[in-house]
Amino acid sequence: MSSGTLLxxxxxxxxxxxxxxxxxxxxxxxxxxGPVKVHSLGLSGDLQASRKHHGGESKAVYAYSQExxxxxxxxxxxxxxxxxxxxxxxxxxxxxxxxxxxxxxxxGEKTILEVTCPRTPCRNFAARMQQPRWVxxxxxxxxxxxxxxxxxxxxxxxxxTVTVLDRPSHGVTVGEAFRGxxxxxxxxxxxxxxxxEVQLSPEIQKTxxxxxxxxxxxxxSTSGRPST
Length: 228
Prior knowledge:
Elements: E1 3-12, E2 16-17, E3 24-25, E4 29-32, E5 36-39, E6 42-43, H1 51-54, E7 61-65, H2 66-76, E8 89-92, E9 104-107, E10 111-118, H3 123-129, H4 134-141, E11 146-152, E12 154-156, E13 161-166, H5 174-179, H6 183-194, H7 202-223
Parallel strand pairs: 7-8
Antiparallel strand pairs: 1-4, 1-8, 1-13, 2-3, 5-6, 5-12, 7-11, 9-10, 9-13, 10-11
């Protein structure tokens, strides 16, 4: 399996005010030195102001790749330091935005994380970046990074090796899930979940239910048409 490097570990620097119901956002994350403990809901010392949208077990950690950050650095004409996008982990050598759902990473000697779902850009992200049409641009580029759940806790540090331990055979990536799954790809993912190959996050489960409902409605509509 492939491997990469953890370039930076980032956690909240300061809570920023927002206009939503939460009132604050923890998107302002900065790289920290030394080992950081990883527990079941994320990094020690970090905070997720709204676990409904940016936290919980299936979104405990958010990772972004240096390669995708370099793309945005060129596009925006400015540096993209670790944590600017609200990520906890900045990695290189692994195609984070095309990681397979259920793929497992070992970071350092002990910590194991599992790829769950893509990041969906929000207005707090747009407010932080202060770029025209930022949510649309970020979505269209498809370089969204990935959320991960914690399989085994431990401590991680910048410079640790990130090793892909396992990659599920269904092959469906977080990038595909973000762009929109075809029915065929959705069925692959559903079969993998039914067979115990992967544990789907609530967000991916919702996506599959929506696709299945749409397909069922389409079949019902077709079956109800008068014959010619």
